[in-house]
Design brief:
CATH class of chain A: Mainly Alpha
Oligomer: heterodimer
Number of domains of chain B: 1
CATH topology of chain A: Cytochrome-c3 Hydrogenase, chain B
Strand content of chain A: 5-15%
Number of domains of chain A: 1
Structural class of chain B: alpha/beta
Number of strands of chain A: 8
Helix content of chain B: 10-25%
CATH architecture of chain A: Orthogonal Bundle
Order of helices and strands of chain B: EHEHEEEEHEHEH
Structural class of chain A: mainly alpha
Chain lengths: 388, 182
């Protein structure tokens, strides 16, 4: 820290100054972001560098904070559903599900079986889209430009499919308390059936061209090792935990919807490094295809919304409920406390990315700056979800 | 599960219906034993899910959610932080992830966590960090016992009334005992 009034304003804002207080003699304080391509949106990380090595790092959040939890207190439950699509644009349907599920839990509402299958199908398609977005962007971070073109080609097909029932391409608000908004029509089902073999054939190509590529391997293997104990201390879930060998997937651990009826595997990796997390996500896309295939076959005819489904003015009955689903980034949780009033008394949104990012400071310690970017990307961050 | 809390002076222990509330077990603790409880949970391989506060008539009910990778079942710890002086001990030195959750709770409700290594604003702009957007006006506050699930009571401290709407068995017994001994 300088004490020269002429250059004091160069010392940075509140967060930089607070961070610099304990910096070592002669070390460089560097701000990564908030406007930096590799931080995926508006994440900012302040790092203390000794040469190229990171001595300390601190993510600075809040640039995309919209106070969704306050908005939940001034809207009815049904009016709050569109917010969920805006919390995480990567896996919007996962968030739809978590909130709607919590409201259903407190309200004691059963969902028709067809709606459950539709939820599974659309949610898994959205998961693939989210993983593709991560995959393309991550490789872009690491200097490979072409893969994102392929990834977005595939993702485009999913967006086209999901556009039919949901009416939107990114910020879905498709789930309703008691079901879903629209049925999957014949055109939509035909497109899904075409997509499955098409995408299945693309995955081996990605493996040959990208996953086994020596440059990628050198960039991500043995980088950012996360121990299982670290996952517990920070509450990391999803591919981050599974990439460290923790066999934990909410779809299996705390089964919900029709997942128990579906046959799929939960991939894990014992590598614990960025490579482990990469592998887990690549296999998860295959598994999601399997789930969609089975769900399409098993989906019964019937209602997509329960009879007498809650109206927009519906009041969540007194009580509390916590509902968690497996999102693309980990455990998405919605905790709802209701006093029976017009609006929900308190809604807490548990963002998996929030917990996953919180371990970055510890994991990045002692790595070189270029590797820190590889670690950051391997956590699959979606900033609006972290800031909420 | 109860064994985890022996000797911690728990005020209230209850088994919950996971299918109905998403929680398997809840414990209401005095603020003083929060850190020891967290230490035991870490040792028992629990992981931290989140921390949040609920602004009730009685004070801020700060809710800690934990879960287990191998034996799933949500465990909820609750602690009361009075409106007048909402201060609780931090568990960020045990569960490192709690640091951010506690900072978020400070931003939203103004609950101060003593011992948090870096209790600066997390999501709210530092220049307006003392606005506490989720604090409720006094007349808008509801009672905790009206909203929070009581569950199947295992233990309830005689003086503890926060979670006991219609005085469950334990309380009736103890209040019935008093005149007998007197």
């Amino acid at each position: 820290m300088t004490t020269n009034p002429i250059i004091d304003h160069l010392a940075g804002d509140f967060y930089t100054q607070n961070f610099a207080k304990t910096a070592g003699e002669g070390n460089l304080i560097l701000n990564l972001g908030p406007q930096h391509p590799s931080t995926h949106g508006v994440l900012r990380v302040v790092v203390e560098l000794d040469g190229e090595y990171i001595m300390r790092a601190e993510p600075v959040l809040g640039y995309l904070h919209r106070m969704h939890e306050k908005m939940a207190e001034v809207k009815t439950a049904a009016q709050f559903i569109p917010n969920m699509g805006r919390v995480d644009y990567g896996h919007a349907l996962g968030w739809n599900w978590a909130f709607v599920g919590a409201a259903e839990k407190v309200g004691g509402i059963e969902v028709p079986e067809r709606a459950e299958y539709i939820r599974v199908i659309t949610c898994e398609l959205n998961r693939i889209a989210s993983h593709l977005l991560w995959w393309g962007a991550y490789l872009l971070d690491l200097g490979a430009f072409t893969p994102i073109m392929y990834a977005f080609d595939d993702r485009e097909k999913i967006l086209d499919i999901l556009q039919i029932p949901t009416g939107s391409r990114l910020t879905y608000s498709y789930f309703r308390i008691g079901g879903v908004a629209q049925d999957l029509n014949a055109e939509c089902i035909r497109l899904i059936q075409e997509f499955i073999p098409w995408f299945r054939a693309r995955l081996p190509m990605y493996k040959d061209l990208v996953s086994d590529n020596i440059i990628l391997r050198k960039r991500i293997e043995n980088i950012g090792v996360i121990e299982q104990e670290t996952c517990r201390r920070f509450g990391a879930t999803g591919p981050v935990a599974r990439g460290s060998g923790i066999n934990y997937d909410v779809r299996r651990a705390v089964p919900y919807s029709v997942y128990p009826k579906l046959d799929f595997e939960v991939p894990t990796s014992d590598l614990k490094c960025a490579r482990g997390r990469y592998d887990v996500r690549m296999i998860e896309m295959e598994q999601s295809l399997r789930i969609i295939e089975q769900a399409l076959e098993m989906m019964p005819e019937g209602e997509i919304l329960i009879k007498g489904a809650p109206k927009p003015s519906w009041k969540v009955p007194k009580g509390e409920g916590y509902f968690a689903v497996e999102g693309a980034r980990g455990k998405i949780g919605a905790y709802v406390v209701s006093d029976g009033g017009k609006n929900i008394y308190r809604t807490k949104l548990r963002a998996p990315g929030f917990c996953n990012l919180s371990l970055f400071a510890e994991v990045s310690k002692g790595t070189i700056l270029a590797d820190a970017v590889a670690i950051l990307g391997s956590l699959d961050l979606i900033i609006p979800e972290i800031d909420r | 599960m109860e064994a985890l809390f022996t000797g911690l002076g728990a005020l209230y222990l209850a088994k919950c219906d996971a299918a109905k509330t998403g929680q398997a077990f809840q414990a209401f603790l005095p603020a003083g034993s929060l850190v020891r409880a967290a230490e035991r949970l870490l040792k028992a391989n629990y992981y931290i899910e989140d921390i949040c506060a609920v602004d009730c008539v009685e004070g801020f009910i700060v809710v800690y959610h934990f879960d287990h990778f191998e034996a799933p079942g949500r465990l909820t710890l609750r602690v009361l932080a009075p409106h007048a002086a909402p201060t609780l001990p931090s568990i960020a030195n045990i569960f490192d992830g709690a640091e951010w959750h506690e900072r978020e709770t400070r931003d939203f409700h103004g609950v101060v966590f003593e011992g948090n290594p870096n209790l600066i604003p997390l999501l709210i702009d530092p220049e307006m960090a003392d606005c506490f957007p989720l604090r409720k006006e006094e007349k808008a506050r509801a009672k905790a016992k009206d909203m929070l699930e009581a569950g199947e009571v295992i233990y309830c401290h005689p003086s503890f009334t926060l979670m006991t709407p219609d005085a469950p068995a334990e309380v009736k017994e103890s209040s019935g005992d008093q005149p007998a001994t007197a």
